Amino acid sequence: MSIRYYSYSFDKTFWQNPEGFFISYICSPMAENISIKNKKAYFEYHILDKYVAGIELLGTEIKSIRAGKANLSDGFCTFVGNELFAFNIHISEYSMGSFYNHEPKRNRKLLLNKKELRKLQQKSQDKGTTIVPLQIFFTDRGFAKMEIALAQGKKLHDKRDTMKERDAKIELGRANLR
């Protein structure tokens, strides 16, 4: 008795046995290096501390993030009571979702230890500091995590210095290729 595999799509595989054809749903291998970054945060803020937090997400949100359809550029984090929430993070609706789809810009709770939450809450009350999301990534076990940072806003001249350093680095790379 031999089993023959017929692969016809990304998610499903048919196999044939003496009783006939059956469908088996096979989990596709997890895409590597799915990372959604907030490049704007590095340009607009001085990063003081970084933390890795879990995110409370719905099923369709996870699928959209795996497809790379999320935007962190306008996002920020604030405390509501003693809990940390991420606001203004846009995760597009899942294209294959039904009426169970999520709202794209809903508030998402971030999961940290109490000790880290207390420390962040004290530091974020200082003048000029804020908490910004830096990136969303997946762990080896498949959990979505968000890297957040305690940051301080840059002045205009600091932004100009950042642009000059970046341009100098690009020019140096071009000179090395010649």
Query: Main sheet: which strands, in order across?
Result: 4-11-12-5-10-8-7
End-to-end Cα distance, whole Å, is 63 Å
Unreliable stretches covering 5 or more consecutive residues: 4-17, 21-29
Number of helix segments?
4
Mind telling me the CATH class of the largest domain?
Mainly Beta
Tell me the fraction of residues in β-strands, as a range.
35-45%
* Overall geometry: globular
**Sheet with the most strands, sense and barrel status:** 7 strands, antiparallel
Q: Which value, in Å, is the CA radius of gyration?
A: 22 Å
CATH superfamily of the largest domain: Small protein B
> Can you name the CATH architecture of the largest domain?
Beta Barrel
Compressed to H and E, one letter per element, the order equals EEEEHEHEEEEEHEEH
In CATH, the topology of the largest domain is named Small Protein B, Chain: A
The count of domains is 2
Number of strands: 12
Mean residue pLDDT: 80
Helical fraction: 25-40%
Structural class: alpha+beta
What assembly state would you assign to the polypeptide chains in this entry? single chain
